[in-house]
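re the bet — no i am not wrong, look at it urself. input seq straight from the record:
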Amino acid sequence: MTSKYNLGDIVFLEKIFTPEDGGKMYSPPSEVIAKITRVEKTMSLGFCYQLEPLCKTYLGGVMYWEDDIAGLVTTAFDAEEEMWKTWGDQ
């Protein structure tokens, strides 16, 4: 079995983890773009991924399961340009 995503892939998240209130997933105001920096296979639940956000969003300090990732950013999509549209150029 191979992972759905690979090191260096740029993905987007529609929900992110927060450790507040005992830990939970929530929907941020807009999609979060992130880069996969580590892929790990677990025996019980499949693959999990360490993500580095390409914006100033905190991802909760956890690894994300494949099901937590909404999808791969297509090559036609410019992740950096989208980040500046979302977060401004401050």
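see?? Residues 79-87 form the longest helix (9 residues). told u. also The helical segments are 79-87. so pay up
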